Amino acid sequence: MKLIVGLGNPGPAYAATRHNVGFWVIDRLARTLRISVDKAKWKGLVGEGCVDGQKVLLLKPQTYMNASGESVAEAVRFHKLNPEAILVIYDDMDLPLGTLRVRMKGSDGGHRGLRSIIAHLGTQEIPRIRIGIGRPAPGVSVTDHVLSPFAPEEREAAEAAAVRAAEAAAAWITEPIDRVMNRFNR
């Protein structure tokens, strides 16, 4: 079984924000895989399907970003998953807008959602896809930056990155992560 988690904040007020690109990816992946992510479970919204004989769970934690680990840990414990069977997708200010980075493991890099997941699972050995949202403009706080929508001139690059991230996540279901990294880390 594989668990793919997209990070974001629940509710319509956050839907278009930079911090919610992980949710955008889950929504695109769900459409591609024909999985409905609409069941309330594990403090999140969950969908379940099968891809090439592989059971797949899609999860959008509804705990708010900083407590994402609560939802992920419940799903992981319920299914007794190893960390390598989990893929976390989230926004990253340290990457230029629209850039993707697929990684096998690593620190939280200052991302509080990932920090929560690492703390709840007790390991940094969690595969992830980071989606670049760019740095805040001078004088703009980090909080205001991540909780703001993309500017109209940024929207196309952000949406294209979400599409590529969904493609990478779909590839991860059936391919080794090093092959996914080689293909999508350009």
From TrEMBL:
One GO BP annotation of this record: rescue of stalled ribosome
Active site per the UniProt annotation: 19 (proton acceptor)
Keywords from the UniProt entry: Cytoplasm, Hydrolase, RNA-binding, tRNA-binding
Site (Stabilizes the basic form of H active site to accept a proton): 91
UniProt xrefs under InterPro entries: Pept_tRNA_hydro, Pept_tRNA_hydro_CS, Pept_tRNA_hydro_sf
EC number, UniProt record: 3.1.1.29
Pfam families on file: Pept_tRNA_hydro
Amino-acid positions noted as binding tRNA in the UniProt annotation, renumbered to this chain: 14, 64, 66
Main location: cytoplasm
Family stated for the protein in its record: Belongs to the PTH family.
Subunit structure: Monomer.
Function noted in UniProt: Catalyzes the release of premature peptidyl moieties from peptidyl-tRNA molecules trapped in stalled 50S ribosomal subunits, and thus maintains levels of free tRNAs and 50S ribosomes. Hydrolyzes ribosome-free peptidyl-tRNAs (with 1 or more amino acids incorporated), which drop off the ribosome during protein synthesis, or as a result of ribosome stalling.
Protein's name according to its UniProt entry: Peptidyl-tRNA hydrolase
Source species taxonomy: Bacteria, Bacillati, Bacillota, Bacilli, Bacillales
